[in-house]
Amino acid sequence: MNKFKNKANGHTEQISGLTWLWALLFGSIYFAVKGVWKHAVVSFILALCTMGISLLIYPFFAKGIMRNYYLHNGWKAVK
Q1: Count of CA atoms in the C-beta half-sphere (13 A) of 79
Q2: pLDDT tens across 38-53, in order?
Q3: Which of 42, 68, 76, 79 is the most buried (most CB within 10 A)?
């Protein structure tokens, strides 16, 4: 499921198939724009500690990170 609906206000968000690309191009800025601050900070710190190598690995997990973020914050997966 790539669409999620907020139960409180009915807002719908969709996770695109290019999430990995946006995370690769923009790194922690992508997560900050989406409001996933925990992963924005973690990816930034990992990038500093690994001299940027983690920015090549983190995008593989971006779609799952976004999916889990919506589900854990009370959003419902819709078709």
Answers
A1: 0
A2: 999 999 999 999 999 9
A3: 42
Q: Is 66 helix (H, G, I), strand (E, B) or coil?
A: helix
Residue 75 half-sphere exposure toward CB, CA atoms < 13 A = 23
pLDDT tens digits, one per residue of 10-26: 999 999 999 999 999 99
Residue 2, SS3? coil
Strand partners, 75: 6
What single letter denotes the amino acid at residue 28? Answer: S
Model's pTM, two decimal places?
A: 0.89
b/e 29-45 (16+ beta carbons within 10 angstroms → b): ebbbebebeebbebbbe
For residue 12, the surrounding DSSP H or E stretch is strand 12-14
DSSP 3: E
